[in-house]
Amino acid sequence: MKKGYVQIYTGNGKGKTTASLGLALRAAGAGFKVFIAQFLKQGDYSEIKALSKFKDEITVEQYGLGRFVKGLPSPEDIEAGKRGYERLMDIIKKGEYDLVIAEEANVAVMCKLFSEDELINLIDAKPDEIELVITGRGATQRVIDKADLVTEMQEIKHYYKQGVMARVGIEK
């Protein structure tokens, strides 16, 4: 890959993580090295199990404590988010991966795990040859302006509204 771009997947609709993981699989299939930083998540989700089969091509690290989703984060949640941000910045600067995915980084900014300025600094630190994908609802206008590609997932209809909970293998 000669030129890497900045992609943003945002919006209230389903599919942001799914799109980024599809891109990770495509990149791995092309022989690229992929790093995925999952903010807010912790645990053995179905996608983590599947991606473990590509451990030579795809590295996944989680920087959530597995308990914070809405409301105010605890000091421990903020510390985990900051640790993840610092690790991600280190990964970007080293340039050892072809594709870097910052999953739920927009939400991490909304929840003040790290700042919008820090996310902008991450984008600015990206070497030209790395593709950077940032996911999560609530992308700020400044982050959108820095991106080369922005996709907004829009919810039109969702079965959650009929009481269907997240299903293993489909949503989790």
Structural overview:
Helix 3 runs parallel beside helix 5. The chain has a single domain, classed as P-loop containing nucleotide triphosphate hydrolases (Rossmann fold). It is 36% helix and 17% strand. A six-stranded parallel beta sheet has the order 3-2-4-5-1-6, with helices on both faces. With 172 residues, it is of the alpha/beta class. It is globular and about 45 Å long. The termini are far apart.
Please name the defining characteristics of this protein.
Rossmann fold, single chain, 172 residues, 17% strand
Structural class: alpha/beta
CATH topology: Rossmann fold
The whole-number mean of residue pLDDT values reads 92
- Cα gyration radius (Å): 15 Å
Uncertain residue segments: none
Strand order of the largest sheet: 3-2-4-5-1-6
Shape: globular
Percent strand equals 15-25%
Largest sheet: 6 strands, parallel
- State the CATH architecture: 3-Layer(aba) Sandwich
| Helix proportion | 25-40%
Find the CATH superfamily. P-loop containing nucleotide triphosphate hydrolases
Counting DSSP E segments of at least 2 residues, the number of strands comes to 6
Order of helix and strand elements from N to C terminus? EHEHEHEHHEHE
Domains (count): 1
Number of distinct helices: 6
CATH domain class: Alpha Beta
